[in-house]
Amino acid sequence: MEDTHGPSLPPTMHETMNTKEVLLRIKPKAAASIALTIVLLLGSACGNADDSRGGLTTGSGLTGSITGDGSSTVFPISEAVAEEFQKENPEVQVTIGTSGTGGGFKKFCNDEIDLQNASRPIKEEEEQACSSKGVEYIELSVANDGLAVVVNKTNTWAKCLTTAELKQIWEPNSKVSTWKDVRSGFPDRPLKLFGPGTDSGTFDYFTDEINGEEGASRTDYTPSEDDNILVQGVEGDEGALGYFGYAYYSENKESLNLVGVDSGSGCVTPSNQTVQSGEYKPLSRPLFVYVKKSSLDRPEVVGFVEFYLTNVSSLMEDVGYTALATDVIEAEREEFNAAQERP
Predict the structure, then answer these.
(1) Is 30 exposed, middle or buried (0-12, 13-18, 19+ CB in 10 A)?
(2) Phi and psi dihedrals of 333, rounded to 5?
(3) d(Cα 18, Cα 80) in Å, to the nearest integer?
(4) Minimum mean pLDDT range among 41-50, 179-188, 220-229
(5) Is the peptide bond before 282 cis (omega within 30 degrees of 0)?
(6) Dihedral sign of CA atoms 312, 318, 319, 322 in order
(7) What domains lie within the chain, and their CATH numbers?
(8) pLDDT tens digits, one per residue of 22-32
(9) Residue 248: per-residue pLDDT
(10) Which distant-in-sequence residues (6+ apart) come within 8 Å of 178 by Cβ?
């Protein structure tokens, strides 16, 4: 997802959207948990046909194991690819955890895993941790995502909130305890908050964009790195408000209400179109997969990443996503090829 300071992110999300205009809509499994770890048996199967890159073939006798961890938001993308890869390669064991972006980077930079799913770019201190362990990596952009602000299905008053109101709710030491504290026309009903835990890249992004400082947040809310737990929390409390990846709202839209966000130019709700165009601001962001360069010495890792980049677009319709733009896919392929050609 190189200089000594690691990959840099374009100065604005709008520029990111123009450079890598991608949007995948994730269809997560409703029963996922914080400690969810999937073990997929992957390996050789019929056929030796080259993929479209002319690189390592799939179905060519691959064996071994691959380990990954990180963002629960990115996890379903990798899961969808892995399920297809398993049909051709049943002798490679792949284990992917969902301990959050921060938790995943701790393992990744400690040289414990091959792949890292991330809902934000790597931080400077994480780059330093990787460097201290001699862990070099490649960053691959795989999607754009919008953060959904949601309320209980019975909430008929909070159809749109300004970024100033969201800050008032979520800033450190906030005194907001009822909906009436947010806006005078709202009912005098207790406000129950649900949001990502501090190891989540979603937490980092939301606090930076809404509160003006990454990690700055009130602490009296129900946190979880598992978005499905947050969904269930908001669904079960009439006064609830929460935020998480848009795809988890999409999967549960029959039981949640989506709140529009007004950043000064009118109310906008997240959708494929508004996230991809950058209109839904400031809560649109890129998603990444990081691959450890030393793991590319192993054919099973190369085969999996090549399969990922070659097939992710064709799998998007099956899982309810919008495919990556062709030029973005090609750029990521070129970056991956270059990483394999290191001295």
Answers:
(1) exposed
(2) -65, -45
(3) 26
(4) 41-50
(5) yes
(6) positive
(7) 13-144+287-340 (3.40.190.10), 146-284 (3.40.190.10)
(8) 333 334 443 34
(9) 87
(10) 186, 188, 189, 190, 191
